[in-house]
């Protein structure tokens, strides 16, 4: 005789097969002997529509769960890589690999280069657009604070003096919005102004005077942006001692229809620059290009 437990296990398997296929090929009778053969049943048991729908729904549910088995490694092992993620950035993973594969250089020149790079990255972040500042001050005063705080100077219409910070960094500018304040001149001489900082000028529509004298980060891309922002108002532009400017950036100035005076220096000498200046003066007949020896 088959044991009762063994019979229950076999009957359980029969029920599972019936659930999955709709029929079962065997049935165990616990009352028969060990040498009795399992009884054959019909291999094609008809299923009603409700049962078929239930099994199809069950199959779809299992398939959907199976599609979710894989998780990205950064989510699956987030706890394990907690310390490593402090030094990992998805945007700069190539730089991290390059850094880890490079030999360690602790020479003074290498440390200085690393420090200057970090300072530049900090400046770029600090020169970003701050909506809260514009909401409190307005576009004109917000740009004025942005320039004067970094060592530049500004001049407003109907005001004869230039506003600049003193040796202690103090300066007199309104701390809230003041009606009727419009910038006429901006002096960025020797200011570490980056391309990302020009976004603070985008809503200035009456600036006539602009100087980038000795701004080492001003390049051709900056001139193209400036040409679009001040295309209808700018009269005076000083680009002396800007080593990153080429004839391509000078050519972009043709979009400033009101430009009358353009200061350049001898570092721009070259056939390409001469041809660019000639074409620029043909497009802007009132433009006076003044080349100053540096």
TrEMBL record:
InterPro entries recorded for this chain?
A: LRR_dom_sf
- Domain of life here? Eukaryota
Q: Which Gene3D superfamilies match?
A: Ribonuclease Inhibitor
Record family assignment: Belongs to the ATP synthase subunit s family.
**Protein name in UniProt:** ATP synthase subunit s-like protein
Please report the organism this UniProt entry assigns to the protein: Agrilus planipennis
What are the top taxonomic ranks of the organism?
Eukaryota, Metazoa, Ecdysozoa, Arthropoda, Hexapoda
